[in-house]
Amino acid sequence: MAWPEAVCPTLVAARTRGSFPYANDPTGYLRRSSQRTMSKASKIKSFDPNSPGSPNADIYGLPFTTAEADIVLVPVPWEVTTSYGGGTSHGPQAIFDASFQVDLFHPEFPELWKRGIAMDEIPQALLEQSKALKKEAQQVMEVLMEGGDAKKRAKAKKALDRINAECAVLNDWVQQRTTYWMDQGKLVGLVGGDHSTPLGFFRAQAARHKEFGILHIDAHLDLRVAYEGFTYSHASIMYNALPIKQLTKLVSVGIRDFCEQENDVFLKNKERVRIVRSADVRRQQYEGITWREQCDAIIASLPQKVHVSFDIDGLDPTLCPNTGTPVPGGFQYEEATYLLSRLVRSGRTIIGFDLVEVAPGKDEWDANVGARLLFHLCGVMAVR
Ligand SMILES: [Mn+2]
User: Fold this and answer.
1) What is the whole-number distance in angstroms between the Cα of residue 17 and the centre of ligand 1?
2) 307 vs 75: CA distance, rounded Å
3) CA neighbours within 13 Å on the CB side: how many for 249?
């Protein structure tokens, strides 16, 4: 198999520096030699879901390798174009660490853990690359805002071109990585990183499905035509998704913040894009409409196959105080999980998901919420 890093020269370079962790171990098979001796069936038999997970275990304290797990999570520790708060590149590690306290006996998915959930190794090379590029991106933004002489501007232009090119490489990498796991028959979820990360995953979905919809939960529309000059900005993810022909419907819910340019993009794509503003959801509720009715209306506008793109800032910011661009309002935790459960109970197939913009703070709170939401996303995806 052509390994994904082949399209990613920066990762190859990082690996030769010795920091690329899973180049020779694509399935995580070798790195967990202690877990290798038992079959999946005997692991299920001997695993005690009531006891705290062993520190050597995978996400949620589970004993399965990525090769054994039905659900594989692809971490993308990347936040190059985030303009306000930072830290989402540490989201995957923080969620992994917080996951150990999530109880596996979930009333909606009591058997889920037996399917196996495992997180792909977190690519440190990506994290380093993200750090380096973000520094450059900040210089670009400075010149953009404060101006500068011709020399400064030329330098910024060059950096901007480089960043856009490297983000395109990241998109290719994500596409190959998610494709690789789906080809192995896995159910795949992506864990960001900022909201620029799932574009390659959307493209991988388009290669497998003639048509699909995206249920987009977010405070922002993310329909900006490049933000601050960055083609693959976190604020442009859905704009960048629109050229995907197989994406027949984009339903954005929880929306609280958008600009005129995004509204123009929406008006041009009205037949394919539906916006459900958070304020409208609340207003209708104050006037007697129930969340169940609203969920059913949201779900009715989606096709049979649905990818869920979940930006944590779609939730009330008390549930994600450290996320990059918090906005007051938004969903409570159970409103969001109810929508997801209702979606799958409608008979729709969840073909994948991404959970993005979780940024750890000084305590584990953001990641705790993220880890629980991630478990719920795995649960609804595994219903098929
Ligand atoms: Mn977003």
Assistant:
1) 33
2) 17
3) 18
Ligand 1 centroid to residue 237 C-alpha, Å = 7
Residue with structure tokens 């991988």?
204
Q: How many angstroms is it from 171 CA to the middle of ligand 1?
A: 16
The per-residue b/e assignment along 178-209, b for 16 or more CB within 10 angstroms, e otherwise, is: bbbbbeeebbbbbbbbbbbbbbbbbbbbbeeb
Residue 18 has a CB neighbour count (10 Å cut-off) of 8
Express each pLDDT in 331-369 by its tens digit: 999 999 999 999 999 999 999 999 999 999 999 999 999
User: How many angstroms does the Cα of residue 2 sit away from the middle of ligand 1?
Assistant: 31
| Centre of ligand 1 from the C-alpha of residue 45, in Å | 40
Query: With pLDDT > 70 as the criterion, what percentage of the chain qualifies?
Result: 89
Spatial separation of the C-alpha atoms in residues 2 and 321, rounded to whole Å:
41
**Distance, CA 344 to ligand 1 centroid (Å)?**
22
Span from the CA of 78 to the centroid of ligand 1 (angstroms): 14
Task: Specify the DSSP class assigned to residue 230.
Answer: B
Distance CA 118, CA 102 (A): 14
Which single residue is written with the structure tokens 């959930």?
Answer: 117
10 Å CB burial of residue 314 (0-12, 13-18, 19+) is buried
Integer Cα distance of 160 and 154 in angstroms: 10
**Ligand 1: centre distance to CA 221 (Å):** 7
Distance 63 CA to ligand 1 centre (A): 32
**Contact call for residues 252 and 342 (beta carbons, < 8 A):** no
Segments making up each domain of the chain, as ranges? 9-22+43-382
* Averaged pLDDT for residues 175-196: 97
pTM (predicted TM-score): 0.91
Query: Residues for the chain: how many in total?
Result: 384
Q: Which fold has domain 9-22+43-382?
A: Arginase; Chain A (3.40.800)
